[in-house]
Specification:
- With 156 residues, chain A is an alpha+beta fold.
- Chain A has one domain: Sufe protein. Chain: A, CATH 3.90.1010.10.
- Chain A has helices at 3-10, 13-20, 69-82, 87-102, 114-120, 133-148; strands at residues 33-39, 44-52, 58-66, 152-154.
- The longest helix of chain A has 16 residues, at 87-102.
- Chain B has two domains: 2-33 and 313-421, Aspartate Aminotransferase, domain 1, CATH 3.90.1150; 57-310, Aspartate Aminotransferase, domain 2 (3-Layer(aba) Sandwich).
- In chain B, the strands form five sheets. In chain B, strands 4-10-9-8-7-5-6 form a seven-stranded mixed sheet, sandwiched between helices. Chain B has a four-stranded antiparallel sheet with strand order 13-14-17-16, covered by helices on one side. In chain B, strands 1-2 form a two-stranded antiparallel sheet.
- In chain B, helix 4 (77-97) crosses helix 12 and helix 14 crosses helix 16.
- Chain B is globular.
- Classes of the chains: A alpha+beta (156), B alpha/beta (422).
- Chains A and B meet through helix 1 and helix 3 of A and helix 14 of B.
């Protein structure tokens, strides 16, 4: 793949769109769980807000913060995908996403979550840019921290 | 290449300096011939660390191949040779900044040099309620050591603000110097804004209040002639790797009378006069502050780097870099949506900028694929980033080997960022 193609693969239209117009970029008044994520290397910072119900289902998920196109787009797409999912499903999707960003396209994921994993393939261009993997996964690490009840997470 | 050389010649005509032979300078740096992602390397991250000329590389290899042993120890031939070369490097550093040889302490880097002052001078002479004056545009290396002292000793840090152009607010600085001020610790050149601070005035005002001054000169010594005696500064810290020398070696200059009243901050071999369990006595400065085997080869390499820079001449380097700064500033400013931070009249060849359309991190990744190395992020100066209201910028920092042609490659690469982000 040429350099220009690799860049086009990284900065696909979908990513640029989510980067410029992030979805669920807000602080829900009724969130009951949140965490702050920070990448000290580049200064990217974001807070993920969750509304979890008693059955461990994500009723609402949103975020605020500032970061590069990749981290903003990843956070935005994450919020779109996770609404209505259980904590366990969220973890399975993150595992698949992490594999996409670091290992390869051959993800193993329960059939009912395949569509979600496919939507995230658009971010797998970061594989060619190892320094940028943490940008793509910051929101997800922050989500995990929120679910685990940790207020802060830092990716170094 | 032709255009870049003619630009350099033109700039030397303007400053009446001897012609600056850029093509020959570039041949001294082996790494400049390498490619990155199939493109010629355009290295514009000199503010983070500079590349090394063959003279430094050869000197370090020569030490290891011919003259290496531990220093200040054996009676054998090689130990004497290594000691002589290490001490000769100390002489070179001293001459380079106008100091006495015994006033030069070798450290790992500028960070360690500042920590040395904080640990030794700070713990000895600062008490609860005492004040240290720093500025908003310090590198973390000149903030965090004082914060450690703040926690440990209950001292207070006072901060000089920066105006919108990037100048130090000297009126506020003067007003902060009070009866409780015990030390001024300021940058001599901002690693983000490029602002060169008025060091003479800073020292003069502090001394008028009886306050000693430490200057962080990591960026300054690279771009201009520094004379610590003319400045009358009490401490001056800088690192070797930004000065075309190796990493792992830095310098603390301290007025001898200051160093002489400071206790050791690390104990071990090489810094003692005699050791017994009844009591140990220490050597005089600078050895008192160089516990353990130092970075011998690196110190000698730094000496070679200083020889290299001195042979080119500060005026010639400064003239060339001023031309690059002017050229790149003009070309970058013409890009729509690009904002440059820092327009101080006294400015080193450092340009921090943002693009409306893209985050600094995205700029860094895209220009990297064009072979252009720039720094992105907060540049270890988060309080300054807070002041200028951005979480990250891209930063271009020129060195003595950069060309206007390379600035053109940068400009084209930044334009391609705008094309991708629309």
């Amino acid at each position: 793949m040429s350099m220009a193609d690799e860049l086009r693969d990284l900065y696909q239209e979908v990513i640029l769109d989510h980067g410029k117009h992030p979805r669920n970029f807000r602080h829900p008044a009724d969130s009951n769980c949140q965490a702050h994520g920070h990448n000290p290397l580049c200064g990217d910072t974001l807070t993920v807000y969750l509304k979890l119900d008693d059955g461990h289902v994500i009723r609402d998920v949103a975020f605020e913060g500032r970061g590069c196109a990749i981290s903003t787009a990843s956070a935005s797409m994450m919020t779109e995908i996770l609404k209505g999912k259980t904590e366990a499903q969220a973890k399975a999707i993150f595992d698949a996403f992490h594999h996409l960003c670091t290992e390869g396209d051959d993800v193993s994921i329960p059939p009912e979550l395949e569509e979600e994993a496919d939507r995230l393939r658009v971010l797998s261009g970061v594989r060619q840019f190892p320094m940028r993997v943490k940008c793509a996964t910051l929101a997800w690490h922050t989500l995990n921290a929120a679910i685990a009840g940790k207020p802060e997470v830092s990716t170094e | 290449m032709t255009s870049t050389i003619s630009a350099a010649v033109k700039s030397s005509r303007m400053t009446n300096a001897p012609p600056y032979d850029l093509a020959r300078v570039r041949q001294d740096f082996p790494i400049l011939t390498r490619q990155v992602f199939g493109k010629p390397l355009v290295y514009l991250d000199n503010g983070a660390s500079a590349q090394k000329p063959r003279q430094v590389i050869d000197t370090m290899r020569d030490v290891m191949e011919n003259d290496y042993a531990n220093i200040h120890r054996g009676v054998h031939f090689l130990s004497q040779r290594a000691t002589d070369r290490y001490e000769a490097a100390r002489d070179k550093v001293a001459r380079f900044i106008g100091a006495e040889t015994r006033e030069i302490v070798f450290t790992r880097n500028a960070t360690e040099a500042i920590n040395l002052v904080a640990s030794s001078y700070g713990r000895t002479f600062l008490e609860r309620g005492d004040e240290i004056v720093v500025s908003e545009m310090e590198h973390h290396a000149n903030i965090v050591p004082w914060q450690l002292l703040e926690t440990e000793r209950g001292i207070r840090i006072r901060v000089v603000p920066v105006d919108d152009v990037g100048n130090l607010r000297m009126d506020v600085y003067a007003s902060l110097l009070g009866p409780k001020t015990r030390l001024v610790a300021l940058t001599h050149c901002s690693n983000v804004l490029g602002t060169v601070t008025p060091a003479e005035e800073i020292v003069r005002l502090a001394h008028a209040s009886g306050v000693p001054v430490l200057l962080d000169g990591s960026q300054a010594v690279v771009h201009r002639k520094v004379d610590v005696k003319a400045l009358d500064v009490d401490f001056y810290a800088f690192t070797g790797h930004k000065l075309y020398g190796p990493s792992g070696i830095g310098v603390l200059y301290g007025k001898y009378e200051m160093l002489a009243k400071m206790p050791p901050y690390q104990g071990g071999g090489d810094m003692i006069r005699s050791v017994s369990f009844a009591g140990t006595t220490f050597k005089d400065p600078p050895e008192r502050f160089e516990a353990g085997t130092p970075a011998i080869v690196e110190a000698i390499g730094l000496g070679a780097a200083i020889d290299y820079v001195a042979a080119l001449g500060h005026d010639a380097i400064a003239g060339h870099e001023a031309m690059l700064l002017d050229y790149a500033t003009r070309r970058l400013s013409a890009i729509p949506g690009l904002k440059i931070y820092g327009h101080a009249p006294e400015k080193a060849a450092i340009i921090a900028f943002t693009l409306e359309a893209a985050h600094a991190h995205d700029i860094g990744t895209i220009v990297d694929r064009a072979g252009v190395a720039v720094r992105t992020g907060h540049h270890c100066a988060q309080p300054l980033m807070e002041r200028i209201g951005v979480s990250a910028t891209a930063r271009v920092s020129f060195g003595l080997y950069n060309t206007t042609g390379e600035a053109d490659v940068l400009v084209d690469a930044v334009k391609s960022v705008r094309e991708i982000f629309g």
